[in-house]
Design goal:
Two copies of one chain form a homodimer. In chain A, 36% of the residues lie in helices and 20% in strands. By secondary structure, chain A is an alpha/beta fold. In chain A, the strands form five sheets. In chain A, strands 13-15-16-11-10-17-18 form a seven-stranded mixed sheet, with helices on both faces. A five-stranded mixed sheet of chain A has the order 19-4-3-20-21, with no helix packed on it. In chain A, helix 6 links the parallel strand 6 and strand 7. Strand 18 of chain A pairs parallel with strand 19 of chain B, so a sheet runs across the interface.
Chain lengths: 490, 490
Amino acid sequence: MIYGYDPRTGETVGAALPETDPAEVDTIVHAAEAAGAAWHATSAEERARVLEAIADALTARVDELWQVADAETALGEVRLRGEVARTAGQFRLFAQVIRDGGYVEAIIDHADPSLTPPRPDVRRMKRPLPGVVAVFAASNFPFAFSVAGGDTASALAAGCPVVVKAHPGHPNTSAMVAETVRAALPSPDLLGLVHGMQAGADLVRHPVVAAAGFTGSVAGGKAIKALIDQREVPIPFYGELGSVNPVVVLPSARADEVAKGFAASLTLGVGQFCTNPGLLFVPSDTELLDAIADAVAGTTGGPMLGERIRDGYLGGVERLGELRSLASGKPGEGAWAVTPQVFVTDVDAFAEKLPRIAEECFGPASVVVTYRDIPGLLAVLRNLEGSLTATIHANVPAEATQVAEVLGRKAGRLLWNGWPTGVAVCWAMHHSGPWPASTAPAHTSVGATAIDRWLAPMAYQDWPSELLPPELQDGNPLGVPQRVDGRLNP
Amino acid sequence: MIYGYDPRTGETVGAALPETDPAEVDTIVHAAEAAGAAWHATSAEERARVLEAIADALTARVDELWQVADAETALGEVRLRGEVARTAGQFRLFAQVIRDGGYVEAIIDHADPSLTPPRPDVRRMKRPLPGVVAVFAASNFPFAFSVAGGDTASALAAGCPVVVKAHPGHPNTSAMVAETVRAALPSPDLLGLVHGMQAGADLVRHPVVAAAGFTGSVAGGKAIKALIDQREVPIPFYGELGSVNPVVVLPSARADEVAKGFAASLTLGVGQFCTNPGLLFVPSDTELLDAIADAVAGTTGGPMLGERIRDGYLGGVERLGELRSLASGKPGEGAWAVTPQVFVTDVDAFAEKLPRIAEECFGPASVVVTYRDIPGLLAVLRNLEGSLTATIHANVPAEATQVAEVLGRKAGRLLWNGWPTGVAVCWAMHHSGPWPASTAPAHTSVGATAIDRWLAPMAYQDWPSELLPPELQDGNPLGVPQRVDGRLNP
């Protein structure tokens, strides 16, 4: 059985949920596939209306949802109400995306008999993957990266049925969200939910599964990748794993803003963000270090999402203990509460301890690395592994050219004078990055283009107009963007 | 040493080329990476001019190129001159693609402080993958899918350096093409060439390699995938493997055109096309079978590209020998010549022997499967594995609705009243399909969108205008398509 736990007390909370056995996983996946045939064939407009109905249903139930989630995550009312709103917003964004129609990338090349060899009429657009999308929910966003998170929203928008492997950190929240979404779907089977590690393994090995999305640890992602590698038929694996999100403070940056912003970003949500700033590079400057130490000392910890996550954090902090402590926050309250911890070292000592010292420590811990000059800074940045984000603080853009170039090979999102926590859900967002940040740096799990993971093109050659999808017809009845004979018409 | 062989005589031809040893592979990959830094930073216009210079250089050398290739492949002057033209055309298409700029998918979301939470300025575009692209050349297109084929052209267009593992079937052609392209590049190191199976394995395991493209057999593709799966850092593997390309003749089709067209497509280039029609479904109709048998009997075989390929074909024909022979062509001339062979069975006997009986037999062999009714046809089509193409012959589109729906899940390109051999190089082409046709059905190895395999997006948040790539600047100095605040502007 799977139990929810209250991070404030360490006690079980809510109902006990059975692990899904192999026969049930098979039934759920096949039911999703069967429901998917009709869903695949719906028009974008029909799907958009369903996505909006899901958004409405989640919003209507926010008073219940946040309380169930708070009992299992201790993330608090304000954050959780905001997260439900964000989750509903993700469904609304994908409704916009599929109504716009640009996501199918319609291309039409009319026949050209004057070419050698003569060219037939060729038309191409993206369509939903045949089969079921498997989604592994994350612990740290019980709504926005979980059962009804961005992976599910984008896959349903694409036209694919989804089976989610629930995160054990919030099983009751998962069940309530699934129930809410299923009621808003034309067939409840379009969203399946399974519980338990074995069920997750059964899911990604299932022949009907066409792709998998995952948000979690490097170890978890590697384990799922190993299962997928053994499949008879390979499928794409979109895993968002670990990230240390380096922040580089250049000499021209405003020191007061850096110290305060860093401490706030580090401790937001008890540091439980994929985009938490785990590395801060600063000029060797006693005043700035003092300001950072003061700001961190003013923070307070809190209970982490689960006992294993708490233990992982304590292990990470112990590993970082070989460095000098710069400052600690105040201990938080609750059974699984932890204390923010910031360590400090210089660029040479840090470089010697790479890559081990720069492994992600999930939670409110960070390493401040001091540098004396830009060449020394660049040398160590070049040796970092991939991250979701990299940030520069500076007031003179020209000062940042070289650093920006190096960081541009280390991350999927570059930020200027900001903090990486908080990922805007918009058309341009890219939430991905070089390994180990992602298994697929060309794809994002947040933003409009997240839908691209669940699509594959089809080309139609000399195909009769009456059998063509409307997106590829000459009259363009849906008014989607089309590239016709090489020219893009929006 | 690696030797070229003349398929007409079985004798060695041209110079003996050494296998590339591990240290040389490492040197070549690092040289490519080093040259790649400057290439990555070039403007699209600069790269487009280089691509056109490569096209010119290949065209200028066609008199030499076709002869070297003919000695190693026996494909003949007309085909090989045409293939050099096609290969040059591929470089010209990618010059157009990168000048157009739509391939970077520029998206700009301006800051919106009115939102909750306020949205920062986020801009996103695709950039070349950091690192080197590994390309495994195919045997059957010594120009268009080899050293300077579509994989290389699209990767150079994207801004990536390339190292090609030469196909042993045409080593001297490979060397001459590499020399020609290298002379037209700003740095010759942007195109590396390695010889030998071990060198190929060293190449895909090299840490600096960021992606791999492959065209070849299912066994070869599986072997490379297994090597890639073992990598510390995963990379995308774009493999185009095996395909039987089912052709379905519906009752309303014109029988005379079917028989002639089938025999011609089956035997084109001694059947050595990935899109060769290996399965032909026809109504139970003695007249049509007789016409097919007559047409096939009128064909002539020829020498295959290599001894191993010839042996593979003979093995495949032996395997198909459990079926009744419908017709054979005339034997071709030359050491490695083979005879076209067509077998026949009915839909029930065929279904019993699946999937084995529908494995690709590379060369001019095909199975004609007769069906009595559409439900029986649909049942067997549903059990086929993936292919690059699927074709319907019919004169009444409405008759094809159900068959089209089933075939749409089995292939990456659907053709109407045509033949799958011959892949137009254009914006809309999609040359891919479900496993085992491709390891990555969402990506194509032919056509404008082939460039997408070598790109990954980057998001810039609140990034200073002077550090943004021109494609993402508000003034849009390059005039590329941009999606701004959700609206696409071409």
